Task: inverse folding
């Protein structure tokens, strides 16, 4: 055997180490790969050599051909005997050495000479075809007699009507000539040393040659072969329409380069640019539109041409050309502003605009792929983009250009009329609306990206935009904002009144004067009728269009947002009634109506007149749009929708009682129980538009219009609208609605909240209406509280899709649950918070660890502020109070909760008293509290306001009822809701009355000498505040008086009180989470804070009273006690309740919720019997233990004695010291 390490002998006879099979295979594989790589390298080198040799040979041949061509065409005096000679000796060699024209920019030495050759060739071809030239052509002292070319046999285009071989050769050369011409047209001569005049001449000849080759009528001398010539031209146009030669890309590049636009003014930088530039531009536009115009000519003009057009499938070619025009021309930023106005009618012609609208309306496959597929190049010419606008999708510019091209300015000299424009006469309205919808739909992803970018820059509040931008990105962001704002300006026609009104009139005229036709794809519709109706503009299509516009304006319009669209929708008087009646029929919500142009007719035959925008009085009043908006819904007052059973003279209470008789089921429709996804798609788009418009109108609709004039709807319809939205929104949260319904849910919630808040201020709906959807699904308080907390946390973190349904309902529409249930949920919030605090080691009940404070009764506010204000959230802990009387002595008794309740109520009573100066009472009968406007200017004023917010928070946290109630305006601020014009009456009735007068004023508002300022007087010092920037220089006129009214209301209700409100909210938030209070409206908040009515229910108190010490309900003293209590004045009864419980208000939900319960304890008295016989009684006074809500009542025998002692006790307000 071989020893380890011994050598082995190979078959080759020499010593070698054995190689394994795997290693041998690996080595062979590497060697094989190496040899393959060497072969590929050699082959690649050979290919490169061949290509280079061919290129070199071609270049040499091109140089030789160029020299020969120069001798023939530039220096020689040879005659051109035939068209074949022109094709073979002039065109063919020219195309050979000019095939690399697009690379001539990099060859400065040859650019000038090749331009001269191109100019000469094009001149020769034009003369050969028979096209006249402006001047006699001379070059290098060579003069040609162009009369020689008038012979048809020498016309280059006669080959187009020759043999098949000649046709093929001619068509090939024409295609190559178009390639060269389009490359020249798209060329950028920047950096090249080229004479301006020479380049202009070349461009002129280039476009003239293309125009000539594509028009058989310009081919001189071909009278016999006209039909064949037309056929060849149709083939050229078909070839161009398919995107060959890059004609439309070249035209785009030319227009972008030659007609720049000023971003600030959105106008062309050069008004005309010279005669040559106008002629070239006109020729380019003619060439682009030629396929469209040629195939849209009336058939009666030329029957033979019609037959040829049928042969070439003219409709298909038209759509191809329109698609190229849409892709490359209508996507040019500010196209209508770049070009002089003289060129716009060419694009607005029906033969050009109609096919383009059809392309945008039908090519949904391309649009859905985004701008990349929408504008992909289809030729050797690379598409040009303007670098200033590259961040805006091309479909956005297509949208703007289509909107502008589809409208025409008003010819009337009176610019003050409502109509500032019109649609083109021959526009296809349905295709127009569909085109805009598709383009807007294509912009949705970009809009969402822009919204996210704005949110990243500005956060939730975009008012701090200037400080949010980093220095490096400031210029880019400013440029982007300027571009977006310029884009929005292009869309001005869509938010002008004439735009919407004319679309509505089209629907009316197409249906014989009726706006309304609900066709939810019914199977009963006959096929012929369905086909006929499919070509008509539908109401849901208009709704879909303006729904998309709302989405776009909200994000892209950084100045006004969606306000222009909302103003248009809300103040176009007949739109909302028409939308609502369409929805009534579509969703089967009630009586069916027929809405005619100018009237609404119910099933009973009653006709109600509507304002007709086309011929309304305000349309010819010569006033501005702002004044029309102010008066539009005023005039609807007597013309609003009225149901058959509605009598406007009925009182509001009677109407509500009638509504209650309908029962709860009447307010919850089966169709809406599935949420928004169960609503037909067409109805969903109409409902979205209705909610957005009506929510905007509700902001400015005053109570007189809403309740008295009942505009734009009667109260019966208002109840139906409220019930419909209430039911849909509630069930929508519990259904898995798709993302596409998110916008509908948002606007429906906004509209519903506005209706509910108006109902809270002045009732027009029965309470059962708001409770109807959730009547059978009231949740347990603990489960509801957990769902609410989870929903609030999800909303804060931005994870809105993970919000539980119940939590969404509690955050958005808590009114669907009864007030008592929401109070239980609120108390569950506090109970859970106390558990957490107790687990954290804080004392939440009387005992060790409680905070100790000493309060002087005659300085209760000052001592409370000094000792408690600095505690912050520690105020949630238990606080033990000891009182010091007016003599400086500490009062007897230990605080187990009762003294603190007394302290809190007394402090609140003193601090909120109008005489203290921090709060004032409103001019209403209730005398509700509102912060004094000058409270912030007092010493420690804002700190004191913040402290009072903590006191209110502590009262809510401990369930202690206070004696004062706040103004609904103030409570709305605490709940995070803005106040509006109508609520001003509760704060300043006189100012509200004056503003309403101005709003309805029909005279010239300028005569009132008002401006956008308000004068404030604080402590004898007058200051002037501008309502808007530069308001002192802006006079109030009929055009802006509506803006003034709401600016004044906004100042009084929101801006003026913002520092004080923020201070109060800051203190309140230390103890009460703001989202907890969102469960309640303003009235319910006051009820939660003060318990509502000042008096209480005696029967409820007696039924929930406990007796100890030997007393029973049948005891003589107890019977006397209740008889005395019933005979007391309401204020005395409240004083009695405060004497026993430290609070003068009854518990929020009744005495059964008082803890500990109201207790009467027997105090035995050892009085001899003869004292009673002598007419004497127990001399001891009643006392109380407020910590345990115990009234210690001696055994009085006489009713007069009990009454006297009880009154003395409750008036003394001394508590423990009485006995």
Result:
């Amino acid at each position: 055997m071989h020893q380890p390490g011994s050598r082995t002998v190979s078959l080759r006879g020499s010593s070698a180490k054995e190689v394994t099979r795997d290693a041998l295979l690996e080595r062979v594989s590497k060697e094989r790969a190496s040899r393959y790589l060497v072969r590929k390298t050699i082959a690649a080198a050979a290919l490169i050599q061949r290509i280079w040799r061919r290129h070199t040979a071609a270049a040499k041949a091109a140089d030789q051909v160029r020299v020969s061509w120069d001798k023939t065409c530039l220096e020689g005096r040879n005659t051109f005997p035939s068209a074949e000679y022109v094709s073979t000796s002039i065109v063919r060699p020219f195309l050979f050495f000019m095939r690399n024209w697009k690379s001539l920019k990099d060859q400065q030495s040859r650019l000038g000479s090749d331009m001269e050759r191109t100019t000469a060739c094009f001149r020769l071809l034009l003369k050969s075809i028979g096209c006249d030239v402006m001047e006699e052509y001379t070059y290098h002292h060579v003069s040609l007699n162009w009369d020689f070319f008038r012979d048809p046999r020498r016309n280059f285009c006669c080959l187009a009507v020759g043999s098949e071989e000649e046709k093929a050769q001619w068509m090939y050369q024409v295609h190559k000539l178009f390639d060269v011409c389009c490359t020249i047209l798209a060329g950028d001569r920047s950096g090249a040393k080229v004479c301006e005049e020479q380049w202009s001449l070349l461009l002129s000849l280039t476009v003239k040659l293309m125009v000539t080759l594509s028009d058989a009528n310009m081919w001189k001398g071909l009278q016999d072969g006209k039909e064949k010539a037309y056929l060849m031209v149709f083939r050229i146009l078909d070839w161009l329409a398919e995107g060959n030669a890059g004609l439309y890309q070249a035209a785009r590049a030319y227009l972008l380069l030659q007609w720049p636009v000023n971003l600030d003014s959105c106008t062309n930088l050069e008004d005309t640019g010279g005669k040559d530039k106008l002629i070239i531009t006109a020729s380019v536009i003619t060439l682009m539109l030629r396929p469209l115009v040629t195939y849209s000519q009336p058939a009666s003009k030329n029957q033979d041409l019609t037959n040829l057009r049928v042969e070439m499938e003219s409709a298909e070619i038209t759509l191809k050309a329109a698609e190229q025009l849409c892709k490359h021309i209508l996507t040019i930023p500010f196209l209508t502003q770049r070009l002089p106005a003289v060129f716009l009618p060419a694009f607005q012609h029906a033969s050009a605009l109609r096919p383009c609208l059809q392309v945008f309306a039908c090519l949904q496959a391309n649009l859905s792929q985004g701008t990349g597929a929408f504008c992909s190049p289809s030729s050797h010419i690379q598409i040009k983009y303007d670098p200033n606008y590259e961040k805006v999708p091309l479909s956005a510019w297509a949208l703007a250009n289509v909107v502008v091209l589809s409208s025409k300015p008003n010819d009337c000299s009176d610019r003050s009329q409502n109509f500032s424009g019109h649609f083109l006469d021959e526009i296809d309205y349905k295709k127009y609306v569909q085109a805009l919808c598709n383009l807007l739909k294509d912009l949705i992803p970009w809009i969402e990206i822009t919204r996210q970018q704005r949110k990243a820059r500005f956060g939730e509040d975009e008012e701090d935009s200037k400080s949010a931008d980093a220095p490096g990105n400031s210029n880019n962001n400013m440029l982007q904002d300027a571009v977006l704002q310029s884009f929005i300006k292009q869309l001005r026609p869509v938010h002008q009144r004439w735009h919407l009104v004319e679309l509505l009139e089209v629907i009316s005229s197409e249906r014989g004067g009726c706006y309304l036709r609900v066709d939810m794809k019914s199977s009963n519709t006959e096929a012929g009728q369905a086909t006929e109706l499919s070509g008509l503009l539908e109401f849901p299509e208009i709704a879909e269009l303006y729904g998309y516009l709302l989405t776009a304006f909200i994000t892209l319009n950084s100045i006004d947002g969606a306000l222009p669209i909302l103003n248009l929708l809300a103040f176009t008087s007949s739109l909302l009634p028409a939308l609502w009646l369409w929805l009534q029929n579509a969703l089967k919500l009630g009586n069916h109506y027929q809405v005619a142009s100018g009237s609404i007719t119910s099933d009973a035959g009653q006709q109600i007149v509507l304002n007709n925008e086309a011929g309304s009085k305000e349309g010819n009043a010569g006033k501005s749009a702002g004044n029309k908006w102010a008066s539009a819904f005023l005039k609807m007052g007597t013309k609003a929708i009225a149901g058959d059973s509605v009598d406007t003279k009925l009182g509001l209470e009677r109407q509500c009682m009638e509504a209650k008789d309908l029962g709860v089921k009447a307010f919850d429709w089966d169709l809406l129980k599935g949420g928004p996804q169960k609503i037909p798609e067409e109805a969903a788009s109409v409902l979205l538009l209705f909610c957005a418009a009506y929510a905007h109108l509700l902001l400015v609709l005053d109570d007189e219009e809403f309740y008295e004039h009942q505009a734009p709807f009667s109260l019966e319809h208002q109840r139906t609208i409220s019930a419909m939205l209430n039911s849909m929104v509630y069930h929508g949260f519990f259904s898995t609605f798709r993302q596409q319904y998110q916008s509908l849910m948002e606007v429906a919630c906004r509209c519903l909240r506005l209706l509910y808040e108006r109902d809270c201020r002045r009732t027009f709906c029965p309470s059962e209406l708001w409770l109807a959807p959730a009547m059978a699904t009231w949740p347990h308080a603990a489960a509801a509280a957990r769902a609410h907390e989870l929903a609030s946390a999800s909303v804060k973190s931005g994870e809105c899709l993970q919000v539980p349904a119940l939590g969404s309902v509690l955050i958005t529409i808590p009114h669907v649950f009864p007030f008592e249930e929401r109070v239980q949920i609120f108390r569950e919030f506090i109970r859970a918070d106390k558990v957490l605090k107790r687990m954290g080691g804080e004392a939440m009940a009387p005992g060790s660890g409680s905070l100790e404070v000493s309060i002087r009764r005659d300085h209760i506010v000052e001592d409370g502020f000094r000792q408690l204000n600095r505690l912050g959230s520690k105020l949630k802990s238990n606080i033990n109070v000891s009182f010091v009387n007016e003599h400086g002595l500490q009062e007897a008794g230990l605080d187990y909760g009762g003294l603190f309740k007394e302290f809190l109520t007394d402090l609140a009573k003193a601090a909120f008293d109008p005489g203290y100066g921090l709060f004032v009472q409103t001019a209403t009968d209730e005398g509700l509290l509102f912060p004094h406007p000058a409270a912030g200017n007092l010493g420690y004023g804002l700190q004191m306001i913040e402290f009072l917010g903590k006191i209110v928070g502590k009262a809510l946290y401990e369930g202690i009822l206070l004696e004062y109630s706040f103004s609904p305006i103030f409570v709305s601020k605490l709940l995070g809701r803005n106040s509006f014009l109508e609520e001003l009456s509760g704060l300043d009735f006189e100012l509200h009355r004056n503003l309403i007068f101005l709003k309805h004023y029909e005279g010239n508002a300028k005569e009132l000498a008002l401006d956008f300022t308000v004068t404030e007087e604080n402590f004898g010092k007058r200051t002037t505040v501008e309502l808007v920037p530069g308001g002192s220089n802006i006079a109030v006129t009929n055009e802006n008086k509506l803006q003034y009214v709401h600016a004044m209301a906004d100042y009084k209700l929101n801006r003026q009180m913002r520092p004080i409100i923020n201070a109060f909210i800051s203190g309140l938030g230390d103890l009460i989470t703001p989202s907890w209070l969102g469960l309640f409206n303003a009235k319910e908040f006051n009820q939660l804070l003060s318990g509502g009515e000042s008096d209480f229910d005696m029967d409820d108190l007696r039924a929930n009273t406990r007796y100890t010490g030997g007393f029973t309900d049948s005891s003589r003293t107890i019977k006397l006690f209740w008889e005395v209590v019933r005979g007391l004045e309401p204020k005395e009864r409240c004083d009695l309740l405060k004497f026993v419980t430290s609070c003068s208000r009854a518990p929020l939900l009744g005495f059964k919720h008082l803890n500990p319960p109201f207790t009467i304890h027997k105090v035995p008295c050892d009085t001899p019997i003869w004292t009673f016989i002598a007419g004497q009684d127990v001399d001891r006074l009643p006392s109380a233990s407020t910590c345990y809500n115990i009234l210690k009542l001696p055994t009085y025998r006489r009713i007069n004695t009990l009454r006297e002692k009880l009154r003395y006790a409750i008036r003394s307000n001394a508590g423990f010291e009485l006995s």
Summary: Residues 338 and 711 are 46 Å apart (CA to CA). The first strand starts at residue 138 and ends at 139. The radius of gyration is 44 Å. The mean pLDDT is 78.
